[in-house]
Amino acid sequence: xxxxxxxxxxxLETIYRRNNIDFSQYRRGTIERRLARRxxxxxxxxxxxxxxxxxxxxxxxGRLIKxxxxxxxxxFRDQSLFQILxxxxxxxxLNAKEERGDNTLRIWSAGCAQGEETYSITIVLVExxxxxxxxxxHYHISIFGTDVDEDALDMARFGVYDVNAIKEVEDDILKKYxxxxxxxxxxxVGNVTIDTSGYQVIDSIRNxxxxxxxNLTSRVAMSPSPGIISNYDLIFCRNxxxxxxxxxxxxxxxxxxxxxxxxxxxxxxxxxSIPKELENVFIPYSPQFRIYKKK
Length: 295
Hints:
Blueprint: H1 3-19, H2 28-42, H3 47-56, H4 58-68, H5 79-100, E1 104-110, H6 116-131, E2 140-147, H7 150-158, E3 160-162, H8 171-177, E4 178-187, E5 192-201, H9 203-206, E6 209-213, E7 232-237, H10 246-259, E8 260-268, E9 282-286, E10 291-294
Parallel strand pairs: 1-2, 1-7, 2-6, 7-8
Antiparallel strand pairs: 3-5, 4-5, 8-10, 9-10
């Protein structure tokens, strides 16, 4: 092992020790590219110099975690998928529950980043209940958004987004579930405060969601700790597993499958699919949108 390799491993070990996030099994190329951005940003010539920066600057450690876990998203990304959620998945789940006299609904949005997807799911659920004259108070609804990035989760709880994040939100949904606001932002070049336009998710939607830190591949907790028990009816885990090595994907899929109720739905990203080891556990519901139903 050369020096660069040694310090690369030390950086990953440091992250695991501090955050219990094991990046050693993520795709190597992805980690190297994202580390390279931090080396350039800090003027570090190699991993050894960058490790020294990490030890001396706590804020840089936060920036590194942010870069390693970055996930670009916006509200209602893949509109057709959310239409299926409205027209098919929620009716399937809630009608089956009504037949059993079950008024609970548990949803988990894994790898939620800043919450755009989690709030999109929540808005679609509220829209479905309104359209079918169902009283939301009749249901015990639990919606969890989880990520390993604490800063992203703080932003998700606040629920404020710029105009790019709401570019696919229809006007009537925007008016019902978002409040236009003006926020202050520091221009790093001119070092002056500028006003920027944005939108905040309304309180009644934000109050339905609990955001918490959770490592999808955790050996300790398969599902979010605030959830107490698993038993989820719907799990969204889109564009997260593509960054994992095969062994780490297996671990994540094990946790996801054991956290999902029989008859529940698992929604993956378009480049992701159920591993062969679990093909007997799930029925492909919509191969196009990577929706699977647990047997």
